[in-house]
Amino acid sequence: MDSFFVVAMIIIFTIVVFITRFCRRLRQRHYDVPAENFRKGHSWSMVDMFPHPTYSNITEHRIVDGACCEICGISVEDQHMTDANRLLQCKELASEAVPLRHHWIKGNLPPYSVCTVCDEQCSVLPQLCDWRCCWCRRSVHERCLGILETTCDLGPHRASIVPPNCLRLKLVGVRGRRRFVVKSVVAPSVPQWKPVIVVANKKSGNGDADNILRAFRRILNPLQVTDLCENSPECALEWCHLLPTATWRVVVAGGDGTVGWVLSAVDNLALKVCPEIFIIPLGTGNDLSRVLGCGEGYSGGIEVEDILMRMKTSRVVRLDRWQLEIKPQRHFGIQLPLKRLIMNSYASVGVDALVALNFHRHRESRPMLFGNRFVNKLWYFTYGTRDVLERECKDLQLKIRLELDDQPVELPVVEGVVVLNISSWGGGCFPWQIRGTSGKIPEARFDDGLLEVFALYSSFHIAQLQVGLTEPLRLGQAKTVKITVLKGSVPMQVDGEPWLQNAGCITMTHHNQASMLASTM
Question: How far apart are the C-alpha atoms of 61 and 68, rounded to whole Å?
Answer without folding.
Answer: 15
